């Protein structure tokens, strides 16, 4: 049997949180090894322009930003490896981790930065236009700017959809909000904001049947399932805000999480309930979900890990 590799500081996930944790951990000589998961670079690799990450006055594409973060982490000695962590035993000492169901590792400390994945409607044209940067997005704060003065639609009726609809309404000429029931799930305060915004039109009891457009979004077909009527909206942007799913399934039963699967940390820190295990980025943060806040929490994770390791007999 091959020897089990021991890692001092293991980072799981390669979004802005993971790479920032790696930069700090490497500079603190924690010799981090980072496993990327199946989407190296995370959610930002699926976006186009990123205009709100500080330090890029001319903007940068999501994939380029992630390459820069990776290069910065590697510059200080982080080993970045492609692979998916499929199983963990975090309560053991050292912690045990399996990659791609075959490689077994042990680790003194683990920083979890597995992120979250936006949920999508699953329509073929939604996938096609999203992958081609054709105007389908799951982040109004990231992409709303590109639709200034235009007409867009947003699907969803939770707090995110309500917040993003009002955000878009400030930039866009008109926002159609497609709600599948005759009521919204969002808090009353958020609903009132939506209802009192004149350029938001709510399409109740409605489902998106198709998104139209060859290279970019040109419209959407929406059906009211109560009246049976279909309507074609002329829009250039299509936003989906039907929730995110944190990528935390492998930690079930070991770490505390809320009913949606977001990891729980000691407030104001990245500490989970297991000593030496830290959670950073979108896997625990359902409120902000921005690249820069994820990066900031990645920094916290590395500092917390470094301080924790300093209290341990072997480091
Ligand atoms: P939610 O799960 O709360 O809401 C998802 C919404 O999408 C629901 O209205 C749901 O409809 C709708 N939906 C789900 N699937 C589909 C589908 N296939 N087609 C059409 N509509 C669909 O997710 P959010 O991201 O809005 O919020 C996540 C959490 O974060 C919540 O706890 C929320 O309160 C919190 N949050 C808080 C904020 C704040 O306080 N400022 C801001 C943003 C989020 P239905 O209602 O019919 O199920």
Structure in words:
The chain has 315 residues and is of the alpha/beta class. Helix content is 25%, strand content 27%. Strands 1, 2, 5, 6, 7, 8 and 19 form a seven-stranded mixed beta sheet that branches. It has a five-stranded parallel beta sheet with strand order 10-17-11-12-13. It has a three-stranded antiparallel beta sheet with strand order 14-15-16. Helix 5 links the parallel strand 11 and strand 12. The model has no long low-confidence stretch (mean pLDDT 95). It binds NADPH dihydro-nicotinamide-adenine-dinucleotide phosphate. NADPH dihydro-nicotinamide-adenine-dinucleotide phosphate binds next to helix 5.
Classify the beta-strand content into a percent band. Answer: 25-35%
* Overall number of strands: 19
| CATH superfamily heading of the largest domain | FAD/NAD(P)-binding domain
**Given the structure, what is the number of helices?**
7
Inertia-based shape: elongated
Give the H and E element order: EHEEEHEEEEEHEHEHEHEEEEEEEH
- Give the helix proportion (percent range): 25-40%
Our count of domains comes out at: 2
Name the CATH class of the largest domain: Alpha Beta
The whole-number mean of residue pLDDT values reads: 95
User: Would you tell me the structural class of the helices and strands?
Assistant: alpha/beta
Main sheet summary = 7 strands, mixed
Looking at the structure, the CATH topology of the largest domain is: FAD/NAD(P)-binding domain
CATH architecture of the largest domain: 3-Layer(bba) Sandwich
Termini separation (Å)? 26 Å
Q: Radius of gyration, Cα only, in angstroms?
A: 21 Å
Oligomer: single chain
Report the bound ligands by name, code or SMILES: NADPH dihydro-nicotinamide-adenine-dinucleotide phosphate
Low-pLDDT residue spans: none
């Amino acid at each position: 049997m091959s020897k089990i590799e021991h890692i001092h500081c293991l980072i799981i996930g390669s979004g802005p949180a993971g790479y920032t944790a790696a930069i700090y951990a490497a500079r603190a000589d924690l010799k981090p090894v980072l496993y990327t998961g199946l989407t190296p670079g995370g959610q930002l690799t699926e976006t186009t322009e990123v205009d709100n990450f500080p330090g890029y006055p001319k903007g940068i594409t999501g994939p380029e930003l992630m390459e820069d973060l990776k290069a910065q982490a590697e510059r200080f000695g982080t080993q970045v490896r492609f692979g998916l962590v499929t199983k963990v035993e975090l309560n053991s000492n050292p912690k045990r981790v399996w990659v791609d169901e075959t490689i077994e590792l042990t680790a003194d400390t683990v920083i979890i930065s597995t992120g979250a994945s936006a949920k999508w409607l699953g329509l073929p044209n939604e996938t096609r236009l999203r992958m081609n940067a054709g105007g389908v997005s799951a982040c109004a704060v990231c992409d709303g700017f590109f639709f200034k003065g235009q007409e867009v639609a947003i699907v969803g009726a939770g707090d995110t959809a309500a917040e993003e609809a009002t955000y878009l309404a400030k930039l866009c000429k008109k926002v159609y909000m497609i709600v599948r029931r005759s009521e919204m799930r969002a808090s009353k305060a958020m609903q009132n904001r939506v209802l009192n915004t004149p350029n938001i039109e709510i399409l109740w009891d409605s489902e998106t049947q198709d998104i139209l457009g060859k290279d970019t979004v040109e419209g959407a077909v929406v059906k009211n399932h109560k009246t049976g009527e279909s309507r074609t909206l002329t829009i250039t942007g299509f936003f989906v805000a039907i929730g995110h799913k944190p990528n935390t399934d492998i930690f079930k039963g070991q770490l505390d999480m809320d009913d949606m699967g977001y990891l729980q940390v000691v407030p104001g820190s990245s500490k989970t309930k297991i000593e030496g295990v830290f959670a950073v980025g979108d896997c625990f943060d359902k409120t902000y979900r921005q690249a820069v806040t994820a990066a900031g929490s990645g920094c916290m994770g590395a500092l917390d890990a470094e301080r924790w390791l300093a209290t341990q007999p072997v480091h």
